[in-house]
Amino acid sequence: MLLSEDPATLIRDTIDNFNIDPDKHAVARIGESLSTLQQSRELRMRDMLASLHRLSRQLNTLTSQHAQLTASSAPVDAAAAAAGGGPRRDAVDDEVLLRLKVYRSLGIEIERDDNNNNSKDGGGSGSGSGTGEWTRAVVRNDRKADVHVVNMDKKFSRYFYANYFWQTL
């Protein structure tokens, strides 16, 4: 035989020298970690499902509200389309109105030529919306209790009038 010792003694010595307790503890710790990880995943999954259900209900509510609002605005849209969509302004009108509003907030009131329109608008330089030229400006300065009436002629430039307005303010 190859072995000089008794096989039973050799097996007993081998069994005595094996120490499997650290391996058992490591396997137990790994099992606990896997269990904790699984619980964490399940908890996270439940939270995500609850959030999904909440968002789904919110989506359904908003969808129904949108449908109701669309249905209730349909007659108004149809009436607006039948009426021509209401007053429409182009970019030039918006620009002139904004310019007039700014000038009026500064205390400058611009008047159009009497023979074309005979209407008063507040503020602006240059021509209006094609119905008359700006001919007169009334500049009010509340701090100085001043009122200046300026007749706007074409012989002076816009630059001149702008400087004059700023000096009187």
From TrEMBL:
Coiled-coil regions listed in the entry: 45-72
Biased composition annotated in UniProt, kind: Gly residues: 121-131
Keywords: Cell cycle, Cell division, Centromere, Chromosome, Coiled coil, Kinetochore, Mitosis, Nucleus
Key word Coiled coil present: yes
Main location: cytoplasm
InterPro entries from the UniProt entry: Ndc80_Spc24, Spc24_Fungi_globular_sf
Transmembrane annotation, as ranges: none
Cross-referenced Pfam families: Spc24
Segments for region (Disordered): 112-133
GO molecular function: microtubule binding
BP-aspect Gene Ontology terms: cell division; chromosome segregation
Protein's cellular compartments: Cytoplasm, Cytoskeleton, Microtubule organizing center; Nucleus; Chromosome, Centromere, Kinetochore
GO CC annotation terms, alphabetical: microtubule organizing center; Ndc80 complex; nucleus
Signal sequence region: none
The UniProt record lists the keyword Transcription regulation: no
Function (record text): Acts as a component of the essential kinetochore-associated NDC80 complex, which is required for chromosome segregation and spindle checkpoint activity.
Assembly with partners or alone: Component of the NDC80 complex.
Family that this chain belongs to: Belongs to the SPC24 family.
Descriptive protein name: Kinetochore protein Spc24
Species of origin: Moelleriella libera RCEF 2490
